Amino acid sequence: MNDTAGSQDNSEATAKKYTFNGCSDDENKSSVAVTFNTGHTMTTDLPLRMGGKDQAPQPVECLLAAWAGCTQATALFVSRQLMRDNKRSPLLERMEFVNITATRDERGALALAIHEDPPAQSRIQTLAGTIVVWPSFDEELLQLLQEQTELRCPVASMLSASGCRMNVEWINGDEKENRRSVFSRNRNKSNIPL
Fold it and tell me: What is the sign of the dihedral through the CA atoms of 138, 140, 145 and 147?
């Protein structure tokens, strides 16, 4: 058996599988409801200006939320391993995603004539903003937390592999004036659930 075949067998043996079923809505043709093998469900929709009913997040918004959730989950895993390996490393308690902005060229999805290739790629081209972590990590550990999280997060890895330019700065929350962020205060005022 050669190395390539062994790698493939090993990859298949360690592959995590995700399955779902989904269906568009008969009344709202721009909406899709999906049920995963875990029993969780989610729905996507399009804005009114794109022919949807704006009753759920757009698919790209779901991708960005998946990036945030996957980044947080992966960072917590990395933090636990850092703490196990290095007793001076704290356990990640909280992450905040601040002013995260993603851009894409709409011509990639909407350009006409439809029988011709679009003049731009439809993927997300840039993702930028700040991730704030609590408690504080020393500079070396914060850099390691960021690097290992970005390498190990499946969604971040997929975005990077697509060519998306990731420009997300990670900072310590204790560097901010107040542990409770502007985002958290505004979210509470607008009755957005925590």
Answer: positive
- Tell me the per-residue pLDDT of 116-171, one tens digit each, with 9 for 90 and over: 999 999 999 999 999 999 999 999 999 999 999 999 999 999 999 999 999 999 99
Domain 58-194 belongs to what topology?
GMP Synthetase; Chain A, domain 3 (3.30.300)
Query: How far is residue 38 CA from its own chain's centroid?
Result: 19
Pairing of strands 41-44, 32-36: antiparallel
Rounded CA separation 163/67 (Å): 15
Left if phi > 0, otherwise alpha if psi is -120 to 50, otherwise beta: which for 129? left
Distance CA(62)–CA(59), nearest Å, equals 5
Residues 40-97 pLDDT 10s? 999 999 999 999 999 999 999 999 999 999 999 999 999 999 999 887 789 999 999 9
Domain boundaries, the chain: 19-56, 58-194
Cis peptide, bond prior to residue 118, ω within 30 of zero = no
